[in-house]
Design brief:
The complex is a heterodimer of chains A (275) and B (342). Chain A is of the alpha+beta class. Helix content of chain A is 21%, strand content 43%. Chain A folds into two domains: 2-83 and 251-274, Immunoglobulin-like, CATH 2.60.40.2250; 96-250, C8orf32 fold, CATH 3.10.620. Chain A is built from seven helices and 14 strands. In chain A, the strands form three sheets. In chain A, strands 1, 2, 3, 4, 5, 13 and 14 form a seven-stranded antiparallel sheet that branches. A five-stranded antiparallel sheet of chain A has the order 11-10-9-8-12. In chain A, a hairpin with a 5-residue loop joins strand 3 (49-53) and strand 4. In chain A, helix 3 packs across helix 6 (177-190), helix 4 (138-152) runs antiparallel to helix 6 and helix 5 crosses helix 6 (177-190). Chain B is an all-alpha fold and 342 residues long. Chain B has two domains: 1-154, no CATH class; 158-318, no CATH class. Helices cover 69% and strands 1% of the residues of chain B. The radius of gyration of chain B is 23 Å and the shape is globular. The chains are: A alpha+beta (275), B mainly alpha (342). The A-B interface holds A 9, 11, 19-20, 22, 48, 155, 157, 160-163, 176-178, 199, 202, 206-212, 229-230, 247, 251-259, 261, 263, 265, 267 and B 260, 326-342.
Chain lengths: 275, 342
């Protein structure tokens, strides 16, 4: 499917701020599962854009505004064609025994450890083991964990914030897709299945917004996207922006500035299917 | 890029270029001595004094040496540790700067620079020097050219590269003006000299050779050496890579690569002064320069080049001390990822 994606983020500061340094991760990844036809980033006040690839191969646009400003707008516009791989069948594909070889095949060490928003606690391990009922196949275990997370958490907008840790999500049993993804990552890693956080967009008839899901590494089948918020494998309605250990690695816009903490952020995302 | 890294890359390039140019100046003047007849002590001192002046270190020199004798001058410019701009000290400083940013440069560059450093600090260097000074200078010059070639062929073209370029061309422009200024005492204060003696022609061809400009000059003016043409070539040539105009154009380009400001515009002081100097050199004629007086003009040029260096330092390197009550950095608000309408 082909989409036009418009993503505008506006900041209004109560008083002028300065020395603003920002990293923007809003450029869809050029990967076999999607083709990026165009990408345009606009920043106001006008600033010189530079770009680089980060440690996780995400494409980062960077800009700096040193002069005082009380308004900042970041507008990303992209056109993407999604070409998803066929979903994997729900059958035995890779035993836990074979899973052990994963670090030899793929650089996935980072995706097996605790990270900023994900912990490897005994509680998480217990949840994971209970949810998989002694399953000996890693892929079926992932599907079981996804189903479990989907049922375990209640989707509730504004119940969590952008920096909510997985342990709080486990306790409160509610959250948004970001929290669903963090919990599933934690459970997968507890069973030594490499799992990474994916930032992107979801474009269905009912939803048109930024989204987060999970990719797990299955030897022989590569990284496979699973969406715990909807309990399904990813399809052509998912557009991938970046990957990392958790949200902290792929935050769409992150940065620092000098000045007031009184500020207001508004985000507008519009995704239109193109014939 | 960290300011500290930019600063080290910039000075590494400057010191390499400086060592090379001092080697050029001393080398050519030593060779030139062979051509001068009736040398007595007084003439020798008259000959060597301007060379100390050209390097801009007169103060330091006369603290250490009462008279500008040939031996004192060469010792001062080549080996003296008390002179921060002697060839040995320049190479030590270049290496020290390179060492601080070892992770930003290539292995090949580091090894060549380190090799030159080890050579120049070894007793062998003295031996070569005493056997044949020109062989010694050849070693310094070719190593410097080798390093410039390695930088061009192996350094990644990021911001750091443009700081290297800025340092290199700023230093080269400055040293070319100083080499050109060595023989100013033989010129009238203002205006172009009418006729010059064969001895003077020899001196001016030495100036050309100091800048490796002899062959390039010959292709344009044949063997007709005249101060007017030498000055025009070394100041206003657009094509000769050691002429002041060429160097300032490259410097201006590098500064704009760093700041991202287009030609013809400016945002920071360094590119303002550099852009203005380019225009001035482009729209100047050699007659006008001689009308002002070559020495005065070169003095002024050196001042402007120093100002570019200072402005570059203030804009990119200098970090003023921050008051504790200064506003702190805060994190930009981040957006939560949530699919609405679930």
């Amino acid at each position: 499917m082909k989409f036009d994606i418009y993503h505008a983020t506006r900041y209004v500061y109560a008083s002028a701020v300065r020395d603003s340094f920002n990293d923007v991760r809003l450029q869809p990844m050029p990967i076999p599962e999607q083709k990026v036809e165009s990408f345009l980033l606009r920043v106001l006040p006008a600033a010189r854009l530079t770009h680089f690839k980060d440690f996780y191969s995400n494409w980062v646009n960077h800009f700096e505004i040193l002069e005082p400003h009380s308004y900042l707008m970041i507008e990303a516009q992209s056109r993407v064609i999604t070409l998803p791989a066929a979903p994997l069948p729900e059958e035995k594909l890779c035993s836990f025994e074979k899973m052990r070889a994963a670090p030899n095949i793929e650089r996935c060490f980072d995706y097996m450890l605790a990270s900023r928003f994900v912990e490897l606690s005994p509680e998480a391990w217990k949840l994971a083991v209970d949810a998989t009922h002694g399953q000996d196949d890693a892929w079926l275990a992932v599907l079981a964990l996804m189903k479990f997370v989907h049922g375990f958490l209640k989707y509730e907008s504004f119940s969590t914030h952008v920096h909510t840790h997985m342990s709080e999500v486990m306790k409160d049993k509610r959250g948004v897709c970001q929290d669903f993804a963090h919990l599933l990552i934690g459970l997968c890693r507890a069973l030594k299945i490499p799992a990474r956080y994916i930032s992107g967009y979801l474009a269905t008839e009912t939803a048109s917004a930024t989204h987060a899901w999970v990719e797990v590494f299955i030897p022989g089948h590569g990284w496979r996207g699973v969406d715990p918020t909807h309990d399904r494998q990813i399809d052509e309605t998912y557009v991938k922006l970046g990957n990392g250990r958790d949200y902290a690695d792929v935050s769409p816009i992150s940065g620092n500035y000098r000045g007031t903490l009184e500020r207001k952020m508004t985000v507008e995302v519009k995704i239109t299917p193109v014939a | 890029m960290l300011s500290r890294v930019a600063h080290s890359l910039y000075w590494m390039a400057r010191y390499i270029e400086r060592a090379e140019n001092i080697a050029r100046i001393v080398d050519v003047n030593l060779q030139l001595l062979l051509d001068i007849r009736n040398l007595d002590e007084k003439r020798l001192i008259e000959y060597w004094s301007p060379i100390v002046q050209a390097t801009g270190e007169e103060g330091a020199f006369f603290k250490l040496h009462p008279h500008a004798t040939g031996q004192a001058v060469t010792e001062f410019l080549v080996f003296q540790n008390e002179n921060p701009n002697s060839i040995v000290q320049c190479i030590c400083s270049a290496r020290e700067n390179a060492r601080m940013v070892r992770d930003q440069i290539t292995l090949e560059l580091w090894e060549e620079l380190n090799r030159l450093y080890l050579f120049i600090r070894s007793p062998q260097a003295r031996e070569v020097w005493e056997r044949s000074a020109s062989e010694f200078f050849q070693e310094v010059k070719s190593s410097s050219l080798h390093i410039i070639g390695i930088m061009r062929a192996t350094l990644i073209r990021n911001e750091g590269w443009w700081f290297v370029q800025a340092g290199q061309f700023l230093e080269r422009a400055d040293k070319t003006t100083r080499i050109l200024d060595v023989r100013y005492q033989s010129l009238p204060e203002r205006g172009v000299p009418e006729r010059i003696t064969p001895d003077q022609a020899l001196e001016w061809s030495a100036v050309l050779r100091s800048c490796s400009a002899w062959d390039a000059y010959k292709t344009i003016y044949a063997a007709d050496v005249h101060p007017r043409r030498v000055a025009e070539f070394l100041l206003l040539s657009e094509d000769f890579p050691r002429s002041v105009e060429f160097c300032v154009m490259e410097l201006n380009h590098a500064l704009r690569q760093i700041s991202g400001v287009a030609q013809g515009k400016f945002r920071y002081d360094a590119e303002k002064i550099a852009g203005r100097l380019v225009a001035e050199l482009q729209f100047n004629t050699i007659e006008e320069i001689f009308d002002i007086g070559l020495h005065r003009y070169l003095d002024d040029l050196q001042l402007k080049l120093n100002n570019i260096g200072d402005a570059l330092f203030r804009t990119y390197i200098y970090q003023p001390f921050q008051n504790p009550d200064e506003v702190h950095m805060v994190q930009q608000e981040e957006q939560q990822q949530q699919a609405i309408g679930n």
